[in-house]
Amino acid sequence: MQINSADSRQAQGIIIRGDSRDVARSESYLLNGDGKIQRFAGMAQVRSRRDELMHMLDESEQLLTQLNQISPEAASLASNALEQVLGYSRLIAKARQSQEEMEAVRATLGTDNPMQGSARLDAAVRKIDSASAEMARLGSDIERLRTSVEGLGEVAAQLNGFNNRLSSVAQFLSLGDGIESLLSATRTLGALSEGIAAQKQAVASFAEQMREPLAAVEYWREKVLRFQSEVTDYDQLLALGGAGRERLDDLIMVTDRTVALVAEADPTGISGTLEGLAGNGEGKVNLPGLSAQIGDIRASLPNLRDEEIGRSVAVIEQYVGDQAYAGEKVQLLTDQTLTVSAIKNTIRRESEDQVDVVVLPIGAIQPNLRGEVFRVLGEVRTTIAALSVFVLGILAFLLDHALILSVLKRQARQRVMRGSKWQRMTTRLAGSPYLFGGSIGLIWFVLAFLASGADIPVVGVWGAAGLGLLTGCFFTATCEKFNPVNEDEIVAGEALGQPFETIMREIVIPAGRPGLMQWLNRRRLVMK
Amino acid sequence: MLTVRNLKKAYGSRVALNGVDLEVHRGETVAIMGPSGCGKSTLVRCLNRLTEPDAGSILFAGKEVTTMGANELLETRCRIGFVFQQSNLIKRLSVLDNVAMGQILNGMDRKEAEQLALGELARVGMADRAGDYPENLSGGQRQRVGIARALALKPEIMLWDEPTASLDPILVGEVIEVLENLAQIGTTMLVVTHELYFALRAAQRVVLMDHGQVVEQGHPQAVFANPVSEVGRKYRDLLERWREPALTDGDPTYRPQRGAGRRVYQGEIISGKVHIRTG
């Protein structure tokens, strides 16, 4: 892991080697520079947004499959309920007819027309039986529908929960083009679960609305069945006398109350919901299609290991928008709650439009050929610059400094050391041509490296300094081979009473190899 | 004019000068002789500190040379002409520029310096080669140019470091002739040489050195006639080997043969040095 932030209690970082799926133990240890394990650092808590996302996509797909399995049953129930709701007025009419028949039977009890009374009683009982049976079936259907829709609602509620987290994790991960597809799916899932929740609410409300009429119908049906068991025919009704009349009156009273309650109920308001559930309404969700879409999104997720994601963060340093950018780069990691335009505007305003802003997702970095070529060219350029620095340094030593070093070595050889041991050593060290050569090499190489922007892998500015030092010392040791001085001419100059500067200017430098120093010296030369 | 006292110089563990005492008077020509490696060249180079002595005193015109500051030393060097064994001419400069160089760099007007240089070149017989470059001259001619360069400084004393050592026998005469001429006009000279006949003919005093010390000095004829040192005896023996009687009786003369405009000497090589005998 590479630690990005830390306080006294905890540290956070990204995995740069391995993958969170490889983590078997939660103990963490510090590593030294060689990658060897040092002391215990603490307990690690691994969180992989990508794995979370994949898990949620898997769960969502399963829930959609489950939803798809439940939906046909719910649709069938809704269809039945809808049919009955649409035929509710007919049920009311049937109930009223049975009510009228019962009134007619009661009216015949005071007359001497047993045949008519018997026929009317049979008709009334049949109509009541039929009407109550239909009403009871409606109640049963509504109850089953309610149960089914509640099951749908539970799945939808889970789906909605996953969907919210899915959206959040997907935004954090920044999946590039894939995010639009995923967000589209999550929007559809959200609408689906909200619709199902609304339907569940509507069905529950409808069931509550129909609870009292249906209970009355149930009671009415029990009364009818009891009446039928006690009064098998009109003759028995007559034979029962007052008791028979009471039973008939009681049935008529219950029928009146039931018909009144059923007539009060208006189930047509639920028809739209039922149509939706039955699959006949608008906005029907293609659940298999949505499930397949979720599956596709999951399959298209970059199956990167955490170390690859960690590297991709580093790769952004080199590639921005598939191009190799020269100059400094600042990498901002954000989730997608921030809009790109807002980020760009802020950066441009703060930087006074001096910064290029390129937006790209992590994990979707695919350097193209052009970018690669530019990168390679950049490396070649810096390498050539570095080699040029080296070659120029060599030439400078060959053409110019080797001559000076040769003179300095001659002087060092001739120098008579006097004084104490330390004084002699100091004098020897201060006047050492190796000190001069090494220093010149170091300064030349470092300055040239920095000025040219030269760069070679591994060889940094310290490498250049070391190289310059070594080159300087090497040329100090071998300078006489490259650019020897004519000892006789120098001694002749000294014998003529000329100072060192004049000897260098008039004798040594003009006799050396052509170079910058000789060119510069030409203007000051007296003996041309 | 020049007084040397207890001069010492060592190159590492090898002692080149081991307490040399010497005096040179104005107008005097002193020849320093001795076997190779006895410290002759070191001595003469120490006198103007081309080689730094380790210890001792060098008084030149009353001033101590060994303790002089840099500027005073440069001024002193301008008053001391130095002729090298190899002439040490500046190759990129013409003969005239080589001779005029010292004065020009010391601030003299270029034309005036060149006139002076031409005069000195004429003195050594090289005026007609003023426009040539050293690489086109013979060894003897280069040496004569070197002499002219030293003379152009108008020195109070001339130091010669084996001026004929690298010349073939034919060319030696050219240099010797210049030396003799300078001696005749009273130029103060200290000459390190192996040329016996020059010492005998031109030097007022000969100084014999061995192992970094002055072992004997005096008038040349006196020294070589009755040497007290081993080196002196060797020189005496050498003189006695000369065939011509006139040379063996202590009155050596040379009779140069003239040919093709040059003096021609005949001789034999002994210990790598050319010694003259008449032909």
> What's the average pLDDT of chain A?
77
What is the terminal-to-terminal distance of chain A? 70 Å
Number of helices of chain B: 10
- Along the chain, the helix and strand elements of chain A come as EEEEHHHHHHHHHEEHHHHHHHH
Q: How many helices of chain A in DSSP terms? A: 17
Radius of gyration of chain A: 49 Å
The computed structural class of chain B is: alpha/beta
Major beta sheet, strand line-up of chain A: 1-2
Q: How many runs of DSSP E, i.e. beta strands of chain A?
A: 6
What is the total tally of β strands of chain B?
Answer: 14
Largest sheet of chain A: 2 strands, antiparallel
Overview of this structure, please?
- The complex is a heterodimer of chains A (528) and B (279).
- Chain A has helices spanning 49-86, 88-108, 114-173, 177-230, 234-240, 242-264, 271-278, 287-300, 306-315, 340-350, 369-414, 421-430, 433-452, 461-482, 487-495, 500-511, 516-522; strands at 2-6, 11-14, 27-31, 37-43, 319-320, 323-324.
- Chain A has a two-stranded antiparallel ribbon with strand order 1-2. A two-stranded antiparallel sheet of chain A has the order 3-4.
- In chain A, 70% of the residues lie in helices and 5% in strands.
- Chain A has 528 residues and is mainly alpha-helical.
- In chain A, β1 and β2 (11-14) form a beta hairpin.
- Chain A is built from 17 helices and six strands.
- Chain B is an alpha/beta fold and 279 residues long.
- In chain B, the strands form four sheets. In chain B, strands 6-7-8-3-9-10 form a six-stranded mixed sheet, sandwiched between helices.
- In chain B, α4 crosses α5.
- The model of chain B is unreliable at 243-279 (pLDDT under 50).
- The interface between A and B is medium-sized, with 22 and 30 residues.
Keywords:
heterodimer; A: 528 residues; mainly alpha; 17 helices; 70% helix; B: 279 residues; alpha/beta; six-stranded mixed sheet; 36% helix; globular; disordered C terminus
